Amino acid sequence: MLAVLLIGALSLLVYAIIRYYTFTGRYPKGPLPLPFIGNLLEYEFKAPHKSLAKFGKENPPIYTVFTPIPFVQITDFALIREAFVDKGDDFAGRPTVKVLDDAIAFAPNAGVLSSSGDNWREQRRTSLMILKDFGMGRNLMEEQVRSSIANYIERLSNTADKDHVDVGWPIQVMVANIINETLFGYRYTHDNCQPLLRFVEDTKKFIATSVFRESPLQFFENLSDSKALFLGMMFPVLTKLPITKWHTSGRFKAAMGKINEYIVDNVDRTLKEYDVENEPTCFVHAYKQRMEHNEFLDQTNLYACCSDFFLAGTETTATTLKWAMLIFAAHQEAQEKLRCEIHAVVGKDRPVAMADQTSVSNRFVFFKCHEKYMNFFRCPKLELASSRFNDSPTFWGYKIPKDTWINADIHYLMANDPVFVNPEEFRPERYLMEDGKTLRKDLVERTIPFSIGKRACTGEGLARVEIFIGIASTLQHFKISPSPGMTADLIPETMRFPRQQTLKIESV
Ligand code: HEM
């Protein structure tokens, strides 16, 4: 009897393994997956770029990694462009994963970031139209950014101990303020930003005590750090069982709920001030005005869009600026050269404007360089620039199943594309031709931190203004160096966040 049971169980196991490999065989070949758990054991969830760098080198430019759900990675620029631009419509969707919808989406298929199909198209189109109306990429929004940056510069100037300045928090407030003002029409001062502070602190405390027991901003880190979440995505039943429910989805849902409270409160309050007679001056009012005439626009999507913009638009830009400060602290010569150019073009007192970028960057393409450098460090989104096939088209000879995650591995591309010679070096001049002035279009074209194609970043115009004016204004006013006795620590934390550290700032 026991022998029969054993043979039965073994046969079932063999059958399940054969089925599993039939399933994995439908995807582009990559590192050999183990039965059922795929590449889970060899995937570093705290530093995915390390695993992906290894896999990228050992596999063709399109391969699959199973964590355990299949992720198809594309690591070659021409292929990324072919998929996301030439076949843009096929790659414009996001995978529908119920577990993720339940755990972290504001509502299923709502907003811009994680929605698909007609709803995504309408939310994205409307959001972009509103931002353009407010002057994204033009002077109006630039003025708003400039004024937030002026507050930040003032904040740094008033810091008592200039040998030990943590620029992280002022940058965070500055960037959050820009989004806050765009969405809700008001801004905090650095000395009076209690609600914003409370929001961040609450989230931090909540995360620290009841959810992750780690440091602030760990929400994003833990998203990718959590093998349990990935297991839940592969085996949704785990998100229903009493013991595994909390780890696979519950804690993410709880953290996201807390974060979204801030959004819901602000949207509701802003809506109360809406007056149909007045010209909208913030995103919420402009969206509300359009709700009258567009069936896709409703309150749930409004909440979701604001949540997306807040999350996608603050952490990315703040992290970029924090890295910039560290990188310039570590590269005094480059910093000095750039400051000389800023002073020559802008002077010491006039606020920096976007129009200055051409004059400055023709000689020193730091913005382009910075984007490039940023890629070496981290940006979780870069590693998750993803889409899905709409309807199983054939790509590179593979008929990839519908709803598969497809990642353009921008990080890998920037670190391994042969056009970037010695990619780890901070060498802004790499973007210039021999004449030292003309931009090298081949490099600029392949520098794609905002991704490309139909799902490319909707906030790129705003982010470029924030980054250019943010860096140029800081260096216009301050010399940045490591705190006395220290060196700038450029080794990234989990998920390539910069490590928390103080810097020395001196007025120039
Ligand atoms: C340095 C700053 C930023 C970087 C590096 C960045 C990068 C990215 C990347 C790589 C994507 C994914 C594109 C894809 O799926 O192919 C994305 C999407 C997005 N970003 Fe950004 N972003 C930045 C700033 C911003 C800002 C300031 C905003 C808002 C004002 C924003 C809003 C969005 C939204 C809404 C999406 C989703 C677009 C869609 O799915 O259609 N981002 N971003």
From TrEMBL:
Topology in the lipid bilayer: Peripheral membrane protein
Gene Ontology MF terms in the entry: heme binding; iron ion binding; monooxygenase activity; oxidoreductase activity, acting on paired donors, with incorporation or reduction of molecular oxygen
InterPro entries linked to this entry: Cyt_P450, Cyt_P450_E_grp-I, Cyt_P450_sf
Binding site for heme: 457
Family matches, as SUPFAM superfamilies: Cytochrome P450
Main location: endoplasmic reticulum
Cellular compartments annotated: Endoplasmic reticulum membrane; Microsome membrane
Key words, A-Z: Endoplasmic reticulum, Heme, Iron, Membrane, Metal-binding, Microsome, Monooxygenase, Oxidoreductase
Required co-factors: heme
GO CC terms, sorted: endoplasmic reticulum membrane
Family: Belongs to the cytochrome P450 family.
Annotated protein name in UniProt: Cytochrome P450
Organism of this sequence: Pristionchus pacificus
Lineage of producing organism: Eukaryota, Metazoa, Ecdysozoa, Nematoda, Chromadorea
